[in-house]
């Protein structure tokens, strides 16, 4: 770790990618500026340094996770599972919605994380399961949390094709409907 608290090993690949983007932007701006009479060198480095500094400063911003709970649907596998682990690692209280407490993903989350991780059986296509999940969260929400801070609607299903183009009578429960329905249940439940 460097003396000022900044170490290049801590910079993620996303930050490097965004800095390369600013290199390209700097090149274009410098050439346009040179064409209309400005110093190519000055414009290039001003835009490059400004862009990269902005990227690094934004990357260093972090939300305080203290007292914040999140609900993630579809945590049995894939994106939901990875999101639950990542947000728990960042200090959030996680309510991980799973199809069943018996799935491999649910068992692994319960085994790996003893605190701030709650697996909630929640089939998002069932109104009853969504309502039961709300009640479970109300009962188990830690005292320092002021409700659900974020809802990540990851679980769902649809017929083949663009979800927005499929009529509701063909697929009565597309992802969009599930997200809106889950959100409205938790909003009405004041969580």
TrEMBL record:
Keywords, sorted A to Z: Membrane, Transmembrane, Transmembrane helix
GO terms of molecular function: oxidoreductase activity
InterPro entries noted in UniProt: NAD(P)-bd_dom_sf, SDR_fam
Record flagged with keyword Transmembrane helix: yes
Record's keyword annotation contains Cell inner membrane: no
GO biological process, any: steroid metabolic process
Transmembrane residue ranges: 32-58
Protein name: D-beta-hydroxybutyrate dehydrogenase, mitochondrial
